Amino acid sequence: MPHSVITNDPVAARNTAVEHAPVVYKPLWNTPYAATDGQARSIWVAEIEHEQITDAVRATAHLFQRRVDKVADVRLTAVGQHLWAVRIDGAPGLDWRRHYDHLTYSLIDTPPAVAMAVRDYLRAFGLVFGAFDFGLDKDGGWWFYECNPNGQWAWFPDPVPRQIAAALADQLQHPETT
Questions:
Q1: What is the dihedral of CA 79, 83, 89, 94, to 10 degrees?
Q2: Are 160 and 107 in contact (CB under 8 A)?
Q3: Using one digit for the tens of pLDDT, what is the confidence trace for 125-159?
Q4: Mean pLDDT, the chain, as a whole number?
Q5: 80 by DSSP, 3-state: which?
């Protein structure tokens, strides 16, 4: 896991950006930012310099994290003991969610150590579902970014969405078995 700090303290955020550069950030709560036409706007993962961090950070908690030199991303969806790791290639920037038209997806194996860590994470937080985001470095190393307990998965290539939906239905019908 790259060095990470969750804070709404601008001083702590600036210190992290200085000590662990290059640093990326994202808010942990999607504030109701809107354009003048009323259309909702998202805040994407972006690299930031310490001088750019203002007191506006106080509005909500942000994740400040050392940037990973990645060659691809992985969205690993976990339902109980079941894991689906989808490699995401083709993003021209830091945040693959900004470039859906450029992306390709492939189902890949989850390294045993990553699988164990994901299951431990779910157990520690009392979760049965998680969408885990990772970066893959040039040596094949998996770098954990975050777990979203309500992350999306329906855009995966077939047959993965059907498999996840079936696992979720099984989990809801028989929660004692996972």
A1: 50
A2: yes
A3: 999 999 999 999 999 999 999 998 888 888 888 89
A4: 87
A5: coil
